[in-house]
Amino acid sequence: MVGLGDTIDPGGNVKLAFPQSRTLSISGAALPTYGVDGLPVFVPVRLQGRETIGRIDECRYLVTLRTDDAYAFSPSGTADLELDTMVGTEATVLIQLEGKPGLAGHAGLADIGANAREITGLIEAARLAGQDRHSILYELELRPWLHRATLTQDCRLFQDMSVVEITDAVLAKYPYRVDKRLAGVSRGIYPKRDLQRQAYETDWAFLQRLWEEWGIWWWFEHDDGHHRLVLCDTMGGHQPHGAAYETLRYLPPDGKRIDEEHIHALSVTSRLTIGRVTVTDYDYTRPRAKLTVTEANPRETASADGEIYDWGDYSQPLAGAHGLAGQPNDTDVEARHFARVQLEAKRCAGLRANGKGNLRGLTVGRTFTLTGYPQQAANREYVVVSCALDIEEIGDRTGTGQTYRAEAQFELLPANEPFRLARSVRKPCLSGPEKAIVVGPAGQEVWTDQYGRVKVQFGWDRHGKLDEHSGIWLRVLSPWQGIEMGATFLPRVGHEVAVEHYYGDPDLPVIVGSAVNAFHQPALDLPDNQAVTVLRGREFQGTASGHVAIDDTQGQIQTQIASDAGASQLSLGNLRRIVRKKGRADARGKGFELRTDFWGVVRALRGLFVTTDGRAGGPGHAKDAREAVGRLTQARELQESLSGLAQRHDAQQLDADQSDVAKAIKTRNDAIRGKPSGGEHDFPELAEADLVLSSAAGISLAAQRCAHIASNEDVAVTSGRHVGLAVGRSLFASVANALSLFVHKAGMKLVAAAGNVRIEAQTDGIDMTAKQAVTITSTTDRIHLHAAKEIVLHAGSTEVRISERGYVVRTAGEHTVHAGSHQADVPQTRPMRLPVTPDNPGRFAAHFVLMEHAGGFALPRQPYRITLDNGRMIEGVSNERGETALVTDHDITFGTVELLAASDPDKVIAVNHAAIVRDIATPYAATAPNADKRTAKIRGKTASTPEQGATSENQQPMFATCDPLNFGLRFHHFINGARQSDVRANRPRNDVVYPVTKAYTA
């Protein structure tokens, strides 16, 4: 059999790399040699060391070397060998194995298993150890290449990787072989983990704790001048020894001698171990899931029911690189695996064997079968868990006729017992916060998921690129969180955050706060705003913001809620603007202010109470409306009192009219007061959804344009003194049923300084009654009395009747006529003309259709005003066909049609001449001049040309355009009572206004 370093000559004979008389030899690329053949300078004289499965500190050998005396090296030369060239290189020690002797009946099978065993390692240390007569002694410390991993340290994140993938990634920097004999957790694979962190650990410590957690153990195998790391998680991964050690015999020291290596001391030990492991975990994506798992397999001893209860850390809340889009893990399978690994690590220590023997080839990680032991159950297959070896060459200094001394001390595990490594490396326990930066896709200000998690890159991460691929998903802790409640503060991309770890576990990070830095300054300028506590947001992809601020400046405290949108804010206390980052600005008063540049809405479903009846310091309950109710009660009493007077004077019906209003006031007052039910927390006010305005001084309403009061039932206005109405143009009152005005004491006046006073009863009569004299006077003109049937004058017992039949006077008293002359002529009639009304239209009519001058489209809903020369005025808004009201008169007359601005009825935008000349009784069946019917979309509205034929009143359409140049710009009104004849020589007139010009030039 050819060993390491052996060669074969041309005749086929094996030439050994070391003399047959030596047990030990050594080779290595960096070891010194001499001569043309490159013979080794060092001769190994002793090998001491130990190997243990999964224990790096128990994997080391010490090789003692001396310079070869056979070649009479000068000590002065061999004492100056360069040690540094050897350190860190591989060296291989060869141990000669003779094999088993042949047995009777098996001729030719002597030296079964003869070979050379290799032990290879890195030279960790080389030292000159002294001098032995003419030789220099050296010592080499050999360690497996995994020892290099104990010299490094890193801080690194591994996301969405299994323990095998992490192992490959960490060991990629070491150019050595790794043999994986792994069965996996489920279906031959190891599951991926969201996050595993190497937290300032050596590569070995990081991998060792992962391997121990997952139930992976390791050892080294040596061949071909190299050594390889073997990773294993199943007993089937342990291979048997070669033929010489496949079976080992036990023979006590006082027994007969045999010519083979054997075990001369062996003890079998059974220990008490626990029998059950329970692990638990928590998954915030499934907070109510029961993740506790128990694995039990006690050994057959008494008191084997002990339990270990541990935190498993096997839930994976999809916090890896893919976030919630990742694949969830099988927590039950993984939990059972972790529990079983811990249980088996404890259980496998329960039955062990320890022994000694002159065994040069006993190798850690391999199996053999024991025979000859007095305890029959112990004669079984074992795995070598640990072995301490001491081999020493013994002989004369020339190297001829040498013999050796070999002793091995070992620990064995029955091969049918599962093996796991006991926990020897704990996770680092991190204390104190770490710095991190929130990351996300380019151009995205916030990147989060449904749990409010954000991605961060730690400050120590030298591999990250500060993008969405380089971070880990972390939850953000808040001092206040609950079921759809609490405070949510999401750090934005680029923010610096502080990260802590649950239980100090580097694999359980969580964001606990944010910090400012040079690029992300505080919400307000400091120290200028040091007295202000603020919660301030910032618009996505913008600069606007909103804030909640508490200003604790001495003597100027304020609380403010504000938004840059519409400069909207609510300020309480000492009013002062707080402007974005600048902070405190100009003072604006005291009290509270709610303001906005947009729209404002106050909405209350159950009722709203606004009052200036103060409560100094704010005692009492919020809806206390005693002052308001008192004033409203006084108003109701005044309404009842005056309505009673009106009824007694027949101005109103008894128990009706204004009495109904007073009853409605009482109903509302009762609802505002509410009905107390007793108790400390009884606040009965506003029993219904009333809006109550109450003032200890006055209430003023002011509108730049119009004000509107609407009620589906009653409106009551009550004044303890006067009610004054000042109307800039007209006062209109349209009453569906009755109008009753009652004055108790000082009389009633109705005065028109200009224009007519017109009183009509279109379907009934007019009654005028006075206790004293009735005077009707026309100061500059005449008095006309018209009646379709007759006029009756009655005074005392005298009656005068004027009718179609004539003039009749009936009296029992004196009839006296005083006249300068008296004449009677032939009969003569004069027809009576009644005023034009809708029920009594005039003879001549005009129906106007308002049109847009350019496209010829009718103008629906267009305000207009028609003014006739006789003073009559008709105002309104055109219908959907663009038609005005029908205009009639008894005589042919002329006037103007004015088109008014819809946004401002005081503005005239066009003027047309009007002529009322067509007989109303004449039917019209012609076609409108623009017979081609057209429609168009103008500013989202549909416009059409006028309808064909007659108008809706069966009249000829009179088209009035809105072209301002159609006389409109030159049209004028006289103002302040001026007339055309009021000519002032050489002086411009200031009593004329041009409404269209004014509208178009404003």
Protein described:
The strands form 15 sheets. Strands 3, 6, 7, 8, 9, 10, 16, 17, 21, 22, 23 and 24 form a 12-stranded mixed sheet that branches. Strands 27-26-25-30-31 form a 5-stranded antiparallel sheet, with no helix packed on it. It has a 5-stranded antiparallel sheet with strand order 32-33-34-35-36, with no helix packed on it. It has 6 domains: 7-265 and 352-414, Pnp Oxidase, Chain A (Roll); 272-348, no CATH class; 434-515, Gp5 N-terminal domain (OB fold (Dihydrolipoamide Acetyltransferase, E2P), Beta Barrel), CATH 2.40.50; 532-601, no CATH class; 626-676 and 684-694; 844-1001, no CATH class. The chain has 1002 residues and is mainly beta. Helix 2 runs antiparallel to helix 3 (203-214) and helix 5 runs antiparallel to helix 6. It is rod-shaped, with a radius of gyration of 57 Å. The protein contains 7 helices and 53 strands.
Helix and strand layout, with pairings?
Layout: E1 7-8, E2 14-15, E3 24-27, E4 33-34, E5 39-40, E6 42-52, E7 60-67, H1 75-78, E8 90-97, E9 115-132, E10 135-143, E11 154-161, H2 163-171, E12 178-181, E13 193-201, H3 203-214, E14 217-223, E15 226-232, E16 247-249, E17 263-270, E18 276-280, E19 293-296, E20 307-311, H4 331-347, E21 351-357, E22 367-371, E23 381-394, E24 403-414, E25 434-439, E26 454-458, E27 472-474, E28 481-482, E29 485-486, E30 496-501, E31 509-515, E32 532-536, E33 546-551, E34 558-563, E35 568-579, E36 583-595, E37 608-611, H5 626-648, H6 658-673, E38 691-694, E39 790-795, E40 798-803, E41 806-810, E42 844-851, E43 863-868, E44 873-877, E45 887-889, E46 893-900, E47 908-916, E48 918-919, E49 935-938, E50 941-944, E51 957-961, E52 973-974, E53 992-993, H7 995-1001
Parallel strand pairs: 12-15, 16-22, 18-20, 37-38, 42-51
Antiparallel strand pairs: 1-2, 3-8, 4-5, 6-7, 6-23, 7-10, 8-9, 9-10, 11-13, 14-15, 17-21, 18-19, 21-24, 22-23, 23-24, 25-26, 25-30, 26-27, 28-29, 30-31, 32-33, 33-34, 34-35, 35-36, 39-40, 40-41, 42-45, 42-48, 43-44, 43-46, 46-47, 49-50, 52-53
Helix pairs in contact: 2-3, 5-6
Organism: Burkholderia ubonensis
Subcellular location: Secreted
Keywords: Secreted
